[in-house]
Design goal:
With 454 residues, this protein is α+β, with helices and mostly antiparallel strands. The chain has three domains: 223 residues, no CATH class; 38 residues, no CATH class; 170 residues, no CATH class. The strands form three sheets. The protein has a five-stranded antiparallel sheet with strand order 5-4-3-11-12, covered by helices on one side. It has a five-stranded mixed sheet with strand order 6-7-8-9-10. It has a two-stranded antiparallel ribbon with strand order 1-2. β4 and β5 form a beta hairpin. α7 runs antiparallel to α10. The two termini are 46 Å apart.
């Protein structure tokens, strides 16, 4: 977006400057800003109008409008106005990685402009030759700093949403971004302009050359050792702390801003210290993953769901694919169901038939089933009715029972996700009696709280 608006701004202003009368009598800079704003709006509509492009357009628009009204362009207020515009139009964008990463990166870049960039410009008293010599070094330094800061600011969100970090992102940006800015985007713009006249073929070829270079750089960097670092899922707590740290580092001007670095460090320690679940249960009860003695997840399944398993493995920082045969190691299955041991040796069962369910009640610590459970069942039971009400679950074992973290915790009802209805829940500790009405529906709150669910 910046390249499109910048090129249009430069071209319009340069053409108008060729006419001395216009240069002297009219504000051609403001005219160029208006033309660039129209080009940015066209690019927004052409590109698909996603959140990241909206953010870019709003910031570019505020910058160009500031030029037209003789105000300072690149400020934190510009970023704040762009964020408010996106959230007013698409409030749900707040929880999407596109919004979070885009604004975090831009906050870092604006902070660079406000705090660090002025020191990189040549002083007015320098000679012309010194300024020319400094210009190349300055541009390289700015590209390096911009890539480093943007990558640093987006790392917590990439780790949270995609469970991976890319330590060589700076190297890829340094190799690809100059080509994108100098060849790909200008060629694409010129191709659009030349298309009505039938002269666009050369520009598309030139744009393709730049894109081929980007692909070569991408494949080369991705093939480097350690190009992709995986990180386990860590929840929203560390993400909020790291976001606050980034805001403090970017906004504050006093030494107090370094408290943001302390918060970032604390968020990293918190994220790495969180325990991983011992059992994962899909919302339909067809897939159950158990952490075995080797510390890795092993899968019991009655239906294939490659996407779900891929997400579970990514959240566990596991580089295996859903078709990896090692996912079935330690899992025993027959026509009546499957069983797999946990780290502590306790068995987790996926029961499919009544005969197998009766056997699982005597030897398993946890049973996942869609069938009615005998009242005397000694295992903790997760039944289909509960899964439908609460969704996918992650369980961590404790000495007596399990700590359960569900997508939709007990008692949760939201306008966009209403409660699936009441269900009778058994005690989640051995000997509680499974999923039958071991606890009456009219039990007191104190009795109902006798759960190991957190």
């Amino acid at each position: 977006m910046a390249v499109v608006a910048g090129v249009v701004f430069f071209v319009i202003r340069a053409l108008l400057a060729l006419v001395p009368v216009l240069t002297v009598a009219f504000p051609i800079k403001k005219w160029a800003a208006a033309g660039a704003l129209a080009a940015a709006l066209f690019y927004l509509l052409l590109s698909g109008n996603d959140v990241a492009t909206q953010r870019s357009f709003y910031m570019t628009a505020v910058v160009l409008i500031a030029v037209m009204v003789d105000r300072r362009a690149v400020t934190f207020r510009t970023l704040a106005l762009a964020a408010m515009a996106v959230l007013i139009l698409v409030p749900e964008a707040l929880v999407h990685p596109s919004f979070q990463m885009s604004f975090a990166a831009t906050l870092g870049l604006v902070a660079l402009v406000q705090i660090g960039m002025p020191r990189l410009f040549a002083a007015p008293e320098n000679s012309a030759a010194a300024k020319v010599a400094l210009w190349g070094g300055r541009e390289l330094m700015m590209l390096t700093l911009a890539s480093l800061i943007a990558g640093f600011a987006t790392t917590p969100y990439a780790a949270f949403h995609f469970h991976r970090v890319t330590p060589y992102g700076l190297l890829a940006n340094l190799a690809a971004m100059p080509v994108v800015s100098a060849i790909v985007m200008p060629a694409g713009m010129l191709g659009l302009v030349a298309m009505p006249f039938g002269f666009d073929g050369f520009f598309w070829w030139l744009m393709g050359v730049g894109i081929d270079w980007m692909i070569v750089v991408t494949e080369w960097v991705a093939a480097l050792p350690g190009a992709i670092g995986r990180i386990t899922a860590f929840g929203v707590g560390p993400l909020i702390v790291s976001s606050l740290g980034i805001v403090l580092l970017g906004l504050l001007r006093t030494p107090l801003r370094w408290s943001g670095a302390a918060l970032l460090l604390a968020s990293v320690i918190w994220a790495l210290a969180l325990p991983q679940p011992d059992v994962l249960i899909s919302g339909d009860g067809h897939n159950v993953a158990v952490r075995g003695r080797d510390g890795r997840l092993h899968l019991m399944k009655t239906a294939k769901d490659a996407f779900l398993v891929k997400e579970w493995l990514a959240a566990d920082a596991d580089d295996r694919v859903p078709t990896d045969v090692s996912l079935g190691n330690g899992v025993s299955c027959d026509a009546e169901g499957c069983v797999a041991p946990m780290v502590d040796g306790r068995l987790i069962a996926l029961s499919l038939k009544p005969d197998g369910l009766a056997d699982d009640c005597t030897r398993a610590a946890l049973i996942v089933t869609a069938m009615p459970v005998p009242p005397a069942c000694e295992a903790t039971v997760i039944e289909l009715q509960r899964l439908r009400a609460q969704g996918t679950m992650a369980l961590r074992g404790k000495q007596h029972g399990f700590i359960i973290d569900a997508v939709k915790p007990r008692g949760t009802s939201r306008p966009w996700s209403p409660s699936a209805g009441d269900y009778v829940e058994a005690e989640t500790s051995p000997g509680a009696g499974g999923a039958n009405p071991a606890r009456p529906a009219d039990a007191t709150p104190a009795e109902q709280d006798l759960q190991t669910e957190d």
